[in-house]
Amino acid sequence: MNKYRTHNCSELNENLIDKEVYLSGWLHRKRDHGNLLFIDLRDHYGITQCVLENNNKFFNILERTRPESVLKVFGRVVKRAKGTENQDLTTGKIEVAIISIEILSDAKELPIPVFGEQDYPEDIRLKYRFLDLRREEMHRNIVLRSEVISFIRSEMIKLGFLEYQTPILTSSSPEGARDFLVPSRLNPGKFYALPQAPQQFKQLIMVSGFDKYFQIAPCFRDEDARSDRSPGEFYQLDLEMSFVEQEDVFKVVEKLMVNLFKKFSAKKILYDKFPRITFKEAMLKYGTDKPDLRNSLVIDDITKVFNRDDVKFDIFKKLVKSGAIVRAIKTKNTKDKPRSFFDNIDKWAKQQGASGLAYFTIKKNQSIEATGPIGKFFGEGSLEEIMKICSAEIGDSIFLACGKESEINRILSIARNKIAEDLNLINKDTFAFCWIVDYPMFELDEKTKKIIFSHNPFSMPQGEIKKLDFNKPLDIKAYQYDIVCNGVELSSGAIRNHIPELMYKLFSVAGYNEKEVNEKFSGMINALSFGAPPHGGIAPGIDRIVMLLANKKNIREVTLFPMNQNAQDLMMSAPSNIDDSQLKELGLKINIKKD
Q: Which residues contact 212 (CB under 8 A, 6 or more apart)?
């Protein structure tokens, strides 16, 4: 028999009444009733209530024992008194009458409580993460993460995929974020890079003749933290397939996601076959390539209306003449909303760094007219044209923004969500997946004014290769795609470019000559030169998937030991200084510039 326990803290029930048992776990909480001392004993599996009478020699010891001390309890299972059952516990109909206890580990005064779900500052929670993880909700999130990963592995194997492991120490490559670099002791002055993703390796697996690969892959990127992105490291379901087209990848991922989200959530999935939305359409209708399709509001371009003579809104008309655009969001049947509703949206937009959101409501007396601060500036003809463009009706309201396209997309994409939240239009009990497709191969960097890859440099361009016009690179679309759920980007993917000559041409557009491509991607170029299959893949983020399933808005709530916003591990004091002897061994010197 195990000397610490005969049962775990969720196993005891009425069938075990009068049986003597051993339990071990943490002292979750105490309740002193004078002649009786009740404790909740907690382990990984659950909680059991234990009771000790004041004539027991262990009473004074337990009375002094602090919460979160680890105890071994020996006692007899008894039925709880009528009216004291706890329906929220699997062990709620019984309790353990303590015969003896052993303190296995004393706990100090707690910096944060484990009992209850109080909010505490994140720095305290991360410093004492081992305590934070004992809390029921956090513990449940991490168990969910484990179960999700196990389910994904099982499903991928059912789909004919095999799991392979790719290297952690590799070479640096331009994949969009900063690398974490590791100095080489055996090769002084040279550095490994931790992989931002197993991108090149998984393509090389396909070139090596394996047909379907997957991996729960760690990825490392030296980038700033966000609520949906961990600084430093994250995990993704990395997969790649040979002899496939874009739709083949979609079928695999859709089947996996539908099965996964149905397994771990009671929420409804709006579309079993995920909508395909072009990048161009997404930016126009939603202002973002990460649209939340639970939100029915869309954005319409009404720029041309401001060329009409019956529009007297001179501020917007002047901006339009100088190249600005005007886009609008229609809200249905909001004629009876108070003025404060509209003003609050306008005020909120200014807080987001915009100049505000103009608005009016469409009404009809003898003719169509508009009320609101700018309603008087529109004639009946211009209102009818706006109504046609926006599919608006009498009683609907229109929010407008004017400016550069990038500015308008930013403010209206978040305004669309803000307005929908205020109008309670988003069904929180649903998951809405979609694919964003037809990304441009290249884009213009606003700072440098140079042409750069917009997504993944290893992607296959769309169209006949011989007919691609490299003189108009911004018109070239790629077989690149994102999968989005509830406004959260879960993954990017692509059909890969497996033709070396085409890769040289595409990289030359982005400013790389053949020599540079050979140096930076020697393994890839060399491999593709010896017969490579058409292939493609994707890599959904594990952290974000679990975040959605756990109904959390911050990725640190579903990660065991995350870093803080400054990429610091407060619990382990990382990053840390290293000894001069270690630097000397690596042939390195530290030269920190002072401000």
A: 159, 160, 161, 162, 239, 240, 241, 242
| Alpha carbon distances (Å) from 182 to 220, 258, 456, 524 | 12, 39, 24, 22
Reduce the DSSP state of residue 122 to 3 states and report it. helix
Distance CA 358, CA 412 (A): 12
| Angle, alpha carbons 353-491-412 (nearest 5°) | 25
CA nearest to 54, candidates 31, 76, 33, 81? 33
Indicate the SS3 state at residue 41: strand
Report d(CA 270, CA 117) in Å as an integer.
32
User: pLDDT for 332-344, tens place per residue?
Assistant: 999 999 999 999 9
Q: How far apart are CA 291 and CA 435, in angstroms?
A: 10
pLDDT tens, position by position, 529-584: 999 999 999 999 999 999 999 999 999 999 999 999 888 999 999 999 999 999 98
Distances (CA, A) of 385 to 73, 307, 394: 77, 12, 13
Q: Is 363 exposed, middle or buried (0-12, 13-18, 19+ CB in 10 A)?
A: middle
Contact 199, 175 (CB under 8 A): yes
- Tens of pLDDT, residue by residue over 75-100, are 999 999 999 999 999 999 999 999 99
Tokens standing for 84?
A: 């004291």
Q: Closest Cα partner for 244 from 460, 440, 433, 454?
A: 460
Q: In whole angstroms, what is the distance from residue 210 CA to residue 202 CA?
A: 10
Verdict on whether the full-model pTM lies above 0.85: yes
430 near 267, Cβ under 8 Å?
yes
Do the beta carbons of residue 393 and residue 361 sit within 8 Å?
A: no
Assess contact for 147 and 264: CB atoms under 8 A: yes
- Please give the DSSP secondary-structure letter assigned to residue 592: P
Nearest to 174 by CA among 576, 541, 479, 507: 507
